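User: Hi! I'm working on a homework problem where we have to compare a predicted structure to a textbook description. Could you give me the structure for the chain below?
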Amino acid sequence: MTATFTSRTRWISAAGLAVALSFTLTLAGPAQAVAPVTPSFGPTAGGSSVTIVTPQVVVDTFEAGSSGAFFRASTGEAFSWGASVSQLNSSVDIESPMPMSEPVGVNVIHYGSSGSFAMVLGDDGNIYATGQGTFGELGDGTFAAQTLTTVQMPPGVTGFTEFSLGDSFVLAMGDDGALYSWGKNLGGQLGDGSTTNRGAPVAVTLPLGVTAFTQFAAGGSTAYALGDDGVLYSWGLNTSHQLGAGTTYDAQLLVTTPVPVALPGGTVVSKIAAAYNNGFALDEQGVLYSWGSDAAGALGTGGQSDASQTTTVSTPQATLLPPGVNSYSAISTSVASVYVLGDDLQWYSWGFNQYFQLDQSGTNRSVPGLVPTPNGVDFIQVIGGGFTAYALGSDGLLYSWGLNINGQAGIGTGDYFLLRAPTKVLLQHAAVSADFDGVAATSVTNTVPGRFTAVTPAHVAGQVDVSVGWTLNGFAMTPVTYQNGFLYTDVPPEGPQITIGGATEVTIAPGESHTFAVTVTEGDAEITDEPVVTSPDGIESAVTVTPSGIIFDSTGLGAGTYQFTVSWTDANAITVSQLFTVTVASGDGNETNQDGRDNLSNTGGPDLAWLAGTGALLALLGASIVAGNARRKARGNG
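Assistant: Happy to help. Predicted structure tokens:
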């Protein structure tokens, strides 16, 4: 069975920077369905102990900001996590996904956070804001902090369609087709011809011959937009030549209205992006151009990766391609880290890496390197958020790595540490009820992740639906119904059987393998075709089906408990399955922890001297530290 998400384009806010990213998610599954209830039949008197699949969350849309993240489940619920300042109506840090406090009657369709403020776009066309408003960045006509406020609508606008956050300023597209801006404007980043801060939206000046902008992205204090004439424009601060306008504007520290980016002649831009002091343009041939500051190797052209260097480039240059890669198709950026998708469907990254947001080397990189992936998992979508990276895996799970200072990693803790490797965002499922055709089961017990047991109630003979009430991280989710999930009968149907020649729960040492003796029979005949192996932990690649049994190989897996299910469905659609659990024991303590954690106090700390003048970073760290201190103080007084 294969589940495919519809291809869509989303604006991904990362560290206050927006990127247009198209993706199609295909989740590979077994060729045969695994029975949600095992055994799938029982007597009318009830009393059967059955194992039931716990519903799993399916991520529909997923976005991240500088210190928090958001996703909407396919069942409709919206979840978010991270620093309090990155959440709506929250005074505390949220350390794992929990239901977002959406405005009443509104569904959030776009999320972003940057430094000390956050915004969401509702399906009613309004932009809702929270946090500091010193420069007018909340767009509500004030210059004050707000718990939750609404951005003012410009005259003639009935709704916004997209937005992008910079360092205390915002770009947003109105449904009238005009691009608007508000907030901090000391560098001319609002593009209205002035350097006056604006507490409410103003229209960005259109260049001569341009009737509309079709894409846009906010950098630190510089903005970029693609005109309907096919020309890429920029405006705002130019201290690191981040305008990309070539030598024409080298001597100017800022520009208050859009000017052309000096891309090579004939370049047809398909996507644009921005880091704090960099601009990026991806053309239709998959060539990615970059310009601005090359500190930490953010340009990806093989230049200086020393974070203390201040090399700048004012004319766009083509970034490097990894060996065997001919083009890029998607890009996401953070403060000074870049993530791109190659035509080999692998994600690559470069730039600032002292929080391990690229890989576990902790070394800045000016050339593309592979984004690490968990064993057996491909990344469909990668998002840079501040100094933390996020990914949606082919297993349908979310992953994070890099800085965790206020819960933005989403793994259940907000303590200061670094994640050296992609770690699962906490999505803990638990069943709370089960009913058979509306009659409640008893003894509902969560056993291992992804499964629970229950005792069937009495019921008349026949096929019935099985409904499951469940929670995610302790919060109630929409119940799931397995249609015709159980057959009440006093004459058990003939069907296949799985015979186990040993224990179904074992413990092995790291790097070792174990063989489970499994035989599938139907009647007097042994089934020689291979059964189906599935796993909620995404470890199918660690399992090999052989004539002698099922071999589990722990090579490449960290310490922890893993599970998989072996199942068989016969020609009559009768399915039998067996759950296996393997615990990989801890080694001698010298190997990397399963979740890749590394306390900040043990890393020697990152070199942040090169970012001393970066307002967005200081705002981000300042807000995170204040929130973290407040949280720890509250815990200490509790």
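For your comparison, note the following. Confidence is low (pLDDT under 50) at residues 1-33, 588-595, 600-638. The two ends are 49 Å apart (CA to CA). Good luck with the assignment!
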